[in-house]
Amino acid sequence: MFKINNQITRNQYMFIIQNSIIGVGILSLASGVCKVAKQSGWISVLVAGIYPIYICIVAALIYRNTNYNEFLETNKRIWGKFLAYIFTIFFFINFIFFSSFVLSGFANVLVFTTTKFLSPHTIIVITVILTYFTINYGLTNIGRLSELLFYLTILILIIPFYFINKGHITNLLPLFDDVSSIFKAVPETFFAYSGVEISLLIIPYVTDFKKVLSSGVIGSLITIFIYTLTVLLTINYCGHILTSKLQYPLLYLVAGADLPVLSNFEPLFIFLWGNKIFQTLAVGGYGLSYTLSKIIKKSYNRCCLYSCLIIMFVSSMLVPEHTRTMVIDKVEPYLVGFILVYSTLTLILSYFKGGKTFEKN
Amino acid sequence: MKKISLVLLFMLIFTSCYGKPSIERTSVIAGIGHDIDKDKTLSSSFEFIVFKSQNVVDKSVVTTKGKSIFEMFNKRLLITKRRHLPGTVRTLLISEERGKFGISDIIDAFLRDQERNLNTTVAVSKQRTEEILKLNAKDSNTMAEEIEDLIKSSYEANFTQRDTNIKDFFNMYYQEGRHIMLPYIEKYKDTVKLSGIAVFKKDKLIFTIPEEDTKYINLLRNEKAQGYLTFFDENSKSIDLFCNSRRNVKVDINDNKITYNIYLLIYSSVKEANIDDAQELTKDKLIELEEKYSNELTKQLQEIADKYQNKYGTDIFDVQKYAVAKLGRDKIDFIEENFINSNIKISAKIKILSPGRIIR
């Protein structure tokens, strides 16, 4: 029915990593970190950037040590058959959460801002249909989409720049009021930085393995830069109290930009940013279908359908924003913690259990 | 192809908007005014545009009373014939009495409601806002637009503050060490004029700065401002300078005593010099004038600063935020309490860049 093609170029890998991290998290990131770290929130965002960089490096090293076999093969080689399936199931659950958080967040933001007359469930259904058609053709399609949408990121970046000289430096000082709170705020950023786990699955499909490590790191660095800059400028303009009160600080900035001709920049921003969400969701859906097809040993296309239904169902349950925030706060630290432990252990073991290449599909 | 067209059809069916009044039944709100009555019931006035026929635009004002902002909104819908869009508000006007009562509910409503515009101008009025909004507008269609124009066009003189937007209003309320300071307007003949600054502490108006001091307070308060300064010599002949001011604040702390050093650097050009005809504005002469007027201005500003510091003990110079940035966020109470005992040192420096078209 659909022709699946999974090969991606190195640049496409970089763009996938960069785009899959930026999702709904960028809108509410400043609020969470300012609540704990006050005016130093942007430093927390910078510090937490270690997470995506670490995952990218570790993923590249694991596959280098094991000769770029597929995810399940590599895991079987390192952990044995039983544990490999357990970890695949864990990644399956991780991607369920990731995709549902993104989709429900997207629906909530749309209902909150531009499409007040729609029910969030309608938005979820329509977005899931789009996601289904996007992921059915395999990773190559997603890679191309990411390449295209990367340039939208630059547009999104321009908006905070409008406020670069509008704030006041006293809002950011003193830089290090309370060092411990900077580290306490790091868990608030986990949702914003999640999505990078896809690199543990897709590296074997990159055509050129030579600079996979640096591509991943560059992709993460771009995202970290965008995150830090938006949070920094938000605090610089609003001050930390107002930032922590707002639900979507970035949207507040966007709505406040006083541009000629346009009465409100917000709908245009939502339109641009919504396209990025479709891409982020496609990455989540791909990870979900990929792991599911490995677990139940069915064709990838069939699994796309199942995974879309799962995403639709789970995200419908997360619809009011406060429910979603509560679930994220509870679930995300465990997911991130588990992935960190898993990747570190796998890296160590991969040095001992290398091997020859298996045949890819 | 069939599938895609089915999907598109499916999306079009679901993405329609219904259950809302059509565009002919909506009206554009230009201004909102908040008042308070004697028995502490709130009162709010809406000024909105009425399209009578082609090219004929009129305005109308509706006032309702109630105990909360949205109770008044409910009552307003019983009177008005059209649906009102709150996203188009140009001016938010708060009367002096309402300011003294407290405006935390207004701040919350404007910040919380997603539909509200974030580029509204905020001002405080001496008279009841109802009275002001009901005046006949001369330059624009509505009074709200006229007040906005009045405030926005006053940047070029009197060193008037530029942070009159509602975003700045929220910032002044929420940032530590700052106070809400808004333009104060009053009825003047059959229109309005800008006549000072209203100073709030937390969410309550505490006093207003009269017109004669406003220029100097603005000069001390604003980071960057523009205006004209006039000096007189012994023969009561005048010299006028057009000035661009830059402010720099340094905070020193010695034995729990805070010293605020305000450095003003004023770049100016001579606009009128009605001094002795024989005198040529050479370099030496300009330096002499610079020094003379710098000292004069410093003295004048120091007097005003001391007067307001001793009289009200409230930071109207927007300098406490520097102390917060230096001492830390948790010292805010200490800074607020000790403002009245702290030293404010002002040094103004005028630099004349150009004598203008004529040099003698």
Automatic annotation (TrEMBL), chain A:
> Which sequence ranges are marked TM in the entry?
12-30, 42-62, 82-106, 118-139, 148-165, 185-206, 218-242, 268-288, 300-319, 334-352
Q: Which GO terms describe its cellular component?
A: membrane
- UniProt superkingdom: Bacteria
Q: What is its main location?
A: membrane
Against Pfam families, the record matches this protein to: Spore_permease
InterPro entries named among the record's database cross-references: Spore_GerAB
Record keywords? Germination, Membrane, Transmembrane, Transmembrane helix, Transport
Q: Where in the cell is it found?
A: Membrane
Any single biological process term in GO? spore germination
**Keyword Transmembrane helix included in the entry's annotation:** yes
Q: How does it sit in the membrane?
A: Multi-pass membrane protein
Family, per entry:
Belongs to the amino acid-polyamine-organocation (APC) superfamily. Spore germination protein (SGP) (TC 2.A.3.9) family.
Name under which the protein is recorded: Spore germination protein
Question: What is the scientific name of the source organism?
Answer: Caloramator australicus RC3
What is this organism's lineage? Bacteria, Bacillati, Bacillota, Clostridia, Eubacteriales
From TrEMBL, chain B:
- Cite the InterPro entries for this sequence: GerAC_N (IPR057336), Spore_GerAC-like (IPR008844), Spore_GerAC-like_C (IPR046953), Spore_GerAC_C_sf (IPR038501)
Task: Fetch the Gene3D superfamilies from UniProt.
Answer: Nutrient germinant receptor protein C, domain 3
Gene Ontology CC entries for this record: membrane
Q: Name one Pfam family in it.
A: Spore_GerAC_N
Out of the domains of life, which is the source? Bacteria
Its primary localisation, in coarse terms, equals membrane
* Membrane-protein topology: Lipid-anchor
Every copy of the Spore germination GerAC-like C-terminal domain together lies at 195-356
The Gene Ontology biological process terms listed for this entry are: spore germination
Q: Where is the Spore germination protein N-terminal domain?
A: 22-186
Keywords of this protein's UniProt record, alphabetized?
Germination, Lipoprotein, Membrane, Palmitate, Signal
Q: Where in the cell is it found?
A: Membrane
**Signal peptide span per the entry?**
1-19
**Family statement drawn from the similarity comment of this UniProt entry:** Belongs to the GerABKC lipoprotein family.
Among PANTHER family, the record links this protein to: SPORE GERMINATION PROTEIN B3
Protein name from the UniProt record? Spore germination B3 GerAC like
Q: Which organism is it from?
A: Caloramator australicus RC3
